[in-house]
Amino acid sequence: MGRAVYIADAFTCRPFAGNPAGVLTRADGLSGEQMQAIARELGQSETCFVLEGGEAGTDYRLRWFTPTMEVDLCGHATVAAYTCLAAEGRIRFDEGPVHLRHSTRRGVLGVWVLGQDREARNVSMSAGVASLRPAPDDRTEVARAVGLDPGSLDPDLPLGADDVSQRIIVPVRRLADLLALVPDSDGMIRYGQRAPYRRFTLVSMETLDPRCRTHLRHFAPANGIPEDPVTGTAHAAVAAYLEWLGLQPPGERVLYEGEQGHAVQRPGTVTVELLRGGKTVVDVRIGGRGIIVARGEIETDQPG
Questions:
Q1: What is the pLDDT of residues 197-222, one digit of tens each?
Q2: Which candidate in 33, 46, 55, 88 is catalytic?
Q3: What φ, ψ does residue 197 adopt, rounded to 5°?
């Protein structure tokens, strides 16, 4: 018999929107080579593999694979994974959110799941705090690399770089230009090899929904992801970017929503929570709903 496998859409409460992810909720005994083969077979931007027996004091160990490589962290596939774990009855809900911990290649991270019976109504996860610095790149070259006219960049906001995730944040002045962009995957790969960047996160402060604060598009073609529909970790990075620029409101807790996915007909909403201890950001959490759209079995007994 094969193992249970799911496709779940994250950052949405309706099917065929948000960001789809593959999930194997019982991945113990699989090699990294087998996980990579399964992720390639499922063909989602990321597939999450849930394992028992993480570090001491943790509930699970999570690994994430694109069709071409393993990545350190993935927000939408984590939302999808805990949605599936809840559906299997492996999370016992109380009055408030259930706090769980999982080990990852980025360390031990927390997750908070609010639900009832076997339905997860919200999954929020710690994404850590990105360390932003001014990107020294030429703005015209960056714009052309992603497929934008250089005049589309927001003149009031700088380029930002996060060395840990090899990400460049590119501010776009008008939402219309961001939505009309036809991404240049080859251009991003070529440019990223020089920088080096593997992730290009584009942000506009204009939004379709006035309740949202930011609109994102995110590209990681070097990781096998031409465009990711709704990207939790990108929203977390943009939250740190806005904090770096002094654009976040004051207070110990900043809470807002960001939107993404409309350009690829998969709209979704990410809840972003920025937590401060004094004047220092101690955590950024991202979250949202998830919905299972397919379930079945996958054969995994072939040699890796």
A1: 999 999 999 999 999 999 999 999 99
A2: 46
A3: -130, 140
pLDDT computed for residue 1 by the predictor: 64
79-117 b/e (C-beta count within 10 Å ≥ 16 → b): bbbbbbbbbeeebebeeebbebebbbeeeebebbbbbee
- Residue where the block lists tokens 């996980």: 35
pLDDT confidence of residue 227: 98
Strand ranges in 127-224 using DSSP code E only, listed in sequence order: 132-134, 160-162, 167-171, 199-204, 214-220
> Alpha-carbon distance 153 to 160, whole Å?
13
Copy the structure tokens of residue 227: 């465009």
CA distances from 266 to 74, 174, 210, 229, 237 (A): 18, 20, 18, 6, 21
Residues of the chain with CATH 3.10.310.10: 3-126+289-298, 132-283
Q: Is 52 a catalytic residue?
A: no
**Cβ(285)–Cβ(126) below 8 Å:** yes
- Residue 140 tokens read as 């015209």
- Where does 3-126+289-298 sit in CATH, by number? 3.10.310.10
Place of tokens 């999982």: 102
Q: What is the pLDDT of residues 126-159, one digit of tens each?
A: 999 999 999 999 999 999 999 999 999 999 999 9
Length of the chain: 304
Alpha helices in the chain (DSSP H): 32-42, 75-87, 139-146, 175-180, 185-194, 232-244
User: 213-263, pLDDT tens digit by residue?
Assistant: 999 999 999 999 999 999 999 999 999 999 999 999 999 999 999 999 999
Residue 304, pLDDT score: 46
Residue with tokens 């036809």, as numbered in its chain: 182
Please tell me the CATH code under which domain 132-283 is placed: 3.10.310.10
**Tokens of residue 80, six digits:** 């999808």
Q: What mean pLDDT, rounded, does the chain reach?
A: 96
pLDDT at 302 over 90: no
What is the pTM assigned to this prediction?
Answer: 0.96
